[in-house]
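Example record for the data management plan.
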Amino acid sequence: MPIEKAVNEARSWGESNLDYIIELIRFMISVVAIWFVWTSFAFATYFIPSESMQPSLEVDDRIVVSKWAYGYSRHSLPLGLGEIVPHSWNARLAWSAPARGDVVVIRDEDQGINLIKRVTGIGGDVIEVRAGRLIINGEMAERDFQQQRRYRQHNGIPSVVMVSAYGETLPSGRDYTIYERSDTLPHDDFGPITVPEGHIFLMGDNRDNSADSRAPNGPGYVPLYRVVGRAETVLFTFKHCEREEGLHCPTGRVWRGL
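Corresponding structural encoding:
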């Protein structure tokens, strides 16, 4: 009898734990399914790995990206899963398109990574850069000097660089701040080129430290199906620069529009 009782208790314990494990697996599958749907069709977060969008975005900022802002394509899927979907599925379920001045996340299929840049040209626009000044359809964007800044690079040589901060205003009235190291570097003279229909032209806000559509190794004209979504704001940041005399330490980006 004691042996039989022990066997029954062991069987009961095993069945109870098996039920627990099954319920735990079901719960985890539900969580993953909800996360997958949410990050595919609503919002997702991305971290900033480089300084190409300074001063709007800094290294280690975590941004919120709206997946539904423009519509969906295979690149709306999280974790780069769009890469395994046949490239013949390059259509979009779209109800809007990026506007000049929007900050967007796009999929760079050549490098297999996501990039974040600002839209400076849409289909049909003639884009030109002369001595660092952006020209859209023959109209030069306004540029107002704000101040000189020195900042410590996250990973680069020299470790400290000097830039000029300008307020740039597009012909549409959209404004933001850009950095220029000088107006004579390779990307400061470009074009004119005409952006093909169904594509966008991208530039980083840190104009002389951005491999964007101007660069030979950049993304070039970006087809709309490669747009992942629109960056809305900085959710939080791990950027905690040391306050050094004479060096700029960025603040005030969290929960502000881009």
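Summary line stored alongside the record: The chain has two domains: 1-41, 43-237.
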